[in-house]
């Protein structure tokens, strides 16, 4: 079933051949052109299709295996793994997902995930945010107000809303929460773009979150964040 699959020919003079190959294969997997259990063509065939050396190809396959997308078995070959094995929070994997349409189920799963971690990160931000972070949060919140008051600009809202939530994670003071500010930025943009498609901004909830953080009220910050996570507020 993989014999008719088209691969992008990659010029051998390009830098980072392994990354280019890995990106092409990863996107085909994430787009569903390869399904769990499918076996990739042989190394020789893939090298010919990509126009690259075995060394570059093997590095690419090794990279994809480290992210949980592939597994190699003797006498079977390199096979696509179930989504449950993917390292879905890997920054590079999220970058490769850009432009790939997410499913409704994925939006629900992401919202469920946010409900678990973001309210507590918001609680910590109310306690631990530095003076500089509170100043930056005020600037971002004012921009959110401007965007919501003017004729709705979806792209501008996408950027400012993402910045607002990213800063919350950065302000938590918890080294395990901070990386989510960057790692989830890509998925935040998908989610916000989808949930705000019809101009919804939930400004009242964002105001409550902002005011609670600025006042240092941890309980109110956590409750306000939980309020924002209601499915009914996100076209779900």
UniProtKB/TrEMBL annotation:
Annotated keywords: DNA-binding, Transcription, Transcription regulation
Query: Which InterPro entries does the UniProt entry name for this protein?
Result: GntR_C (IPR011711), TF_FadR/GntR_C (IPR008920), Tscrpt_reg_HTH_GntR (IPR000524), WH-like_DNA-bd_sf (IPR036388), WH_DNA-bd_sf (IPR036390)
Q: Which CDD domains match?
A: WHTH_GntR
One annotated GO molecular function is: DNA-binding transcription factor activity
Transcription regulation among keywords = yes
Q: Which Gene3D superfamilies match?
A: GntR ligand-binding domain-like, Winged helix-like DNA-binding domain superfamily/Winged helix DNA-binding domain
Highest taxon above the source species: Bacteria
Q: Which residues form the HTH gntR-type domain?
A: 15-83
**What is the recorded name of this protein?**
GntR family transcriptional regulator
